[in-house]
Amino acid sequence: RQAIVNKKTHAVGYELLFRDGESNSFPVGMDPHAATGKLINQTHLNFGLKEITDGKRAFINFSEKCLLEDYPYLMSPKDIIVEVLESVTPSDAVFNKIRNLFHDGYIIALDDFVYSSEWTRFLPFVKIIKVDITQTPLDSLGPFMRYLKDYKAKTNRKNKLYLLAERIETNAEFLLAKKLGFDYFQGYFFCRPEMRKYKDVEISQCTLLSLYQEL
Predict the structure, then answer these.
(1) What pLDDT is attached to residue 30?
(2) Between the N and C ends of the chain, which has fewer C-beta atoms within 10 Å?
C-alpha cells in the first residue's frame, strides 16, 4: 500500500499495489486485469480491506476489462475508490459503466490523466483526477488548471472535483503542487509503498471471483 495524503500530510486513503513476492515492484508481464482480480481476492475476500487501509478508502486500479466485467461491484462503495487506468479507452461502453458506478455511490478517479476532449463527458461523474508529475510536469500545468477552473465555473457542479499529484519526491514539488491548487498528494517524499504480508488461502482465484460475481 502507498498512502494518499492531504495538504497537512495526513493519510486520507491508500493505493493498493499488486505484488506477488518479496520484490516491491509490479510483476513483469503481469496482465492488469489478472492483477486486479488477484488483488481483490487477496485483500477483500481473504482478510478484508479495512485491515490493510486502517479503515480508510482503498484506491484500486481497474483496467477496461475489469470495468466492463463489473469488478468494482465486488466491493462496497464505502470502501474503495475506483481508479480508472490511463489505458482505458473513453468508449460508450466505458462511459455507461462509469456513469452507473457513480449513481451507485462509487467514487471515480482518473489515473495519470492527460486531458483530451473525449473525456469531457466523463467529468461530471469523476471526483478525483490524478496527475503524474513525471509525465505532466508541474510547471506545464497552467493551461490544464485554467481549463478545470473554467469547466467548474461553466458546469456549476455540485460535487467538488479534487486534484491529486502523484510521484511527489521533493518538498519543492509538494509546495508547488499545493500552490497550483492540488488537494491530495502521493509519492516517495511522503512514503514508499509499504509491503504487508499475510498468509493466503489456497484456492482457485478465478473460480472464486466468478462465484462471487454470480452471488
Answers:
(1) 59
(2) C
